[in-house]
């Protein structure tokens, strides 16, 4: 009966993915909120009997499904960002300044804050560090309401005025891959013991080496595939001329596969590949077609995962949740991430003219959406070190994701409308 139920849930997710975005457009309600709520309601009926919901028994399946969702989202985010990043030009790096601040300051502070909180509430050092690592990165999957809409094409000049959405989009595209070193740190702490036995390997390889390898692999794959798609001698290979948008899926799978084969971080490889592919023929309409495919597939996969998550919530996923797990989730959403974000984006001197005004900085600090990536990282770590996949961590992460879905989902539209209106009046 399990296969039939999976088809049923997938079909319901597809129908809702088609209908909900337009139906909820004028309301402060997001599609993820509705899907989680529907899933919770379904969980109280006999209908989901037989679905593989236990994260301990179905860890591998959870890992691979969430992995696919993140990969599709990263490809879409990389194609959507209009602002180029030329690794050889310092001026180009400076135009991404808000992104680097969130990645270099807010993310480590969030990891440290949650890890210390978890350790103080009774988790082991390895479990506390893993909790910080899985909950620190913002999510490219559930953050569509606060991200850029999609690639601009044609001969229009690229609009770089929406610094807030660019900041949140680029941060989400990069920090999922950059969370991996800290997940590995938790795995090494659980499996190899004290810090002195592995810190040098972690620093040189897991923190630096695998990041560099992943980015280089993505750039190389992006350049090769872009050269084929846009400039190949054979017309049959110039898929951009035919508008073959499924190239987006072939590109992300190839980039991820090569990134993993050469032992880099595959998530970074996919994002770097998408950015590099976009850099070739930047104004070409083909990018919009590819982005549309990834966006629709991401929407379908996301709603499927959230529907199943909602069912699992009412089928025992929160059994191990206690006041400590609730405290971690609430403090992360309302205190740790906002404070870390404000510290990262604060002007460094009274003379600095930051690209974000005070209201935009507050929004960028607050809208650190948690989502599918946190579930993936926990499933991955539990596969590498089973002692890290305890029910308490699953319950805490699931509660935090759902809290983020409802809080950020309800506030995203009204807050961004107010900020956009203020920016229009200022202009």
From TrEMBL:
It is found in: Cell membrane. Its main location: membrane. It is a multi-pass membrane protein. The keyword Cell membrane does not apply. InterPro entries: Cation/H_exchanger_TM (IPR006153). Pfam families: Na_H_Exchanger. The keyword tRNA-binding does not apply. The chain crosses the membrane at residues 6-24, 31-48, 60-81, 102-135, 172-191, 203-226, 246-279, 300-320, 326-345, 365-382, 394-416. Keywords: Antiport, Ion transport, Membrane, Transmembrane, Transmembrane helix, Transport. Residues 16-417 form the Cation/H+ exchanger transmembrane domain. It comes from the Bacteria. This is Cation:proton antiporter.
């Amino acid at each position: 009966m399990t296969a039939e139920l999976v088809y049923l849930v997938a079909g319901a997710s597809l129908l809702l993915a088609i209908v909900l975005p337009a139906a909820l457009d004028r309301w402060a309600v997001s599609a993820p909120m509705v899907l989680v709520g529907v899933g919770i309601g379904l969980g109280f009926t006999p209908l989901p009997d037989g679905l593989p919901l236990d994260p301990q028994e179905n860890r591998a399946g959870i890992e691979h499904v969430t992995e696919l969702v993140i990969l599709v989202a990263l490809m879409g985010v990389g194609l959507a960002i209009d602002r180029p990043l030329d690794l050889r030009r310092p001026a180009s790096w400076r135009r991404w300044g808000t992104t680097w601040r969130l990645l270099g300051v807010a993310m480590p502070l969030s990891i440290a804050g949650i890890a210390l909180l978890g350790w103080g509430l009774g988790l082991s050092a390895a479990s506390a560090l893993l909790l910080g690592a899985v909950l620190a990165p913002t999510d490219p999957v559930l953050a569509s309401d606060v991200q850029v809409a999609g690639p601009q094409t044609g001969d229009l000049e690229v609009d770089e005025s929406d610094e807030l959405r660019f900041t949140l989009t680029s941060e989400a595209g990069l920090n999922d891959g950059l969370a991996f070193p800290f997940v590995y740190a938790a795995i090494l702490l659980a499996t190899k013991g004290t810090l002195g036995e592995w810190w040098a390997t972690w620093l040189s390889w897991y923190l630096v080496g695998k990041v560099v390898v992943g980015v280089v692999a993505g750039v190389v794959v992006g350049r090769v595939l872009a050269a084929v798609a846009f400039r190949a001698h054979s017309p049959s290979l110039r898929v951009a001329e035919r508008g073959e948008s499924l190239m987006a899926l072939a590109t992300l799978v190839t980039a991820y596969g090569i990134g993993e084969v050469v032992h880099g971080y595959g998530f970074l490889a996919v994002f770097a590949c998408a950015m590099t592919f976009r850099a070739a023929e930047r104004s070409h309409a083909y990018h919009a077609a590819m982005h549309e495919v990834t966006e629709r597939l991401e929407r379908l996969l996301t709603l499927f995962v959230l529907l199943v998550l909602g069912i699992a919530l009412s089928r025992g996923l929160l059994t191990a949740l206690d006041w400590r797990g609730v405290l971690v989730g609430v403090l992360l959403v309302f205190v740790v991430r906002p404070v870390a974000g404000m510290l990262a984006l604060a002007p460094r001197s009274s003379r600095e003219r930051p690209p974000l005004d005070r209201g935009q900085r507050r929004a960028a600090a607050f809208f650190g959406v948690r989502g599918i990536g946190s579930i993936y990282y926990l499933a991955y770590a539990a596969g590498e070190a089973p002692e890290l996949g305890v029910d308490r961590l699953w319950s805490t992460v699931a509660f935090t994701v759902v809290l983020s879905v409802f809080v950020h989902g309800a506030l995203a539209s009204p807050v961004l409308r107010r900020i956009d209106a203020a920016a229009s009046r200022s202009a």
